[in-house]
Amino acid sequence: MKRERSLAGRLMQYGALTLIVHLASGCSDQAPPPPPPTKAAISAEGAAPATPAADRKLVVAFGDSLYAGYNLDQGQGLAPVLEAALAARDVKAQVVNAGVSGDTTAAGRARLAFTLDGLPRTPDLMLVGLGGNDMLRGLSPQETRANLAAILAEAKARGIKVMLTGMLASPNMGADYAAAFNSIYPDLARQYDAALYPFMLDGVLGDRALLLPDGIHPNAQGVKRIAGQLAPLVAEALAP
Fold first, then answer.
1. pLDDT tens track for 2-61
2. Which residues pair with 218 in a beta bridge?
3. Spatial contact of 138 and 174, defined as CB atoms under 8 Å apart
4. Of 30, 109, 178, 231, which cross-links 85 as Cys (Cβ 3.0–4.6 Å)?
5. Quick one: pLDDT at residue 187?
6. What is the pTM of this model?
7. What digits encode the pLDDT tens for the residues 176-226?
């Protein structure tokens, strides 16, 4: 119960912050057309990832700014920090950054095949972290669900395991929107037999010491917290 109250309090703060961001950015109800894919969609440095050693797993982190290392120095984003966290657990893995700040689920869907085709081989696991920007723009949860379902279906067709890192709707979006949005991730995880980390910012949201000044994106310490929580789940998903 205490954990539930704590999460509820963080979400109320999240709601206030995201409402400010939403109003300040003047987002419309329509998503802009997805940008053409670029090599930046494959790695933060824009270079094609090296082929991992035969004894190393290949993980692709496919998401938005929470994956891309928004406003962080090189080496502080989720991919390199998660790779280090896995190494600390004796899990040999190369984690490729395929996060693009600002991506909606539609933009992610549009660049998915390009991203996967640009990898040195079929990944052993794909982390999928999209939907937060859909929610910030007030886009239809049905569209978000359809786009994520298409991403998971493509991964399944290619024989790629998936872990969804979920997002929760800001309270200011209203109860109906939240009910439709929040159910997307557990529903799709069950439908596509994907692993699920229910809330990407769990344990980080609301803790100013773990956030950038915008109060939403994790700082370097926040990314370490997220990676530390993800690492055992990723290790389990990578197990034979």
1. 444 445 445 544 544 444 343 333 333 343 444 444 444 444 334 457 777 778 999 999
2. 211
3. no
4. 231
5. 98
6. 0.83
7. 999 999 999 999 999 999 999 999 999 999 999 999 999 999 999 999 999
Average pLDDT over residues 87-114: 98
The DSSP secondary structure of the chain, one letter per residue, reads: -HHHHHHHHHHHHHHHHHHHHHHHHT--SSPPPPPPP-GGGT-TTSSPPPPPPTTSEEEEEEESHHHHTTT--TT-SHHHHHHHHHHHTT--EEEEEEE-TT--HHHHHHHHHHHHHTSSS--SEEEEE--HHHHHTT--HHHHHHHHHHHHHHHHHTT-EEEEE-----GGG-HHHHHHHHTHHHHHHHHTT-EEES-TTTTTTT-GGGB-TTSSSB-HHHHHHHHHHHHHHHHHHH--
Judge whether residue 126 has pLDDT over 60.
Answer: yes
Q: What angle do CA 180, 181, 185 make, to 5 degrees?
A: 115
Compute the distance between CA of residue 129 and CA of residue 44 in angstroms, rounded to an integer. Answer: 16
Q: In this structure, which long-range contacts are made by residues 140-144, counting pairs with CB atoms below 8 Å and at least 24 apart in sequence?
A: 141/177, 141/180, 141/181, 141/184, 142/180, 143/105, 143/106, 144/105, 144/181, 144/184
Determine how many CB atoms are found less than 10 A away from the CB of residue 234: 26
At 60, phi and psi to the nearest 5?
-115, 125
What is the model's pLDDT at position 14?
52
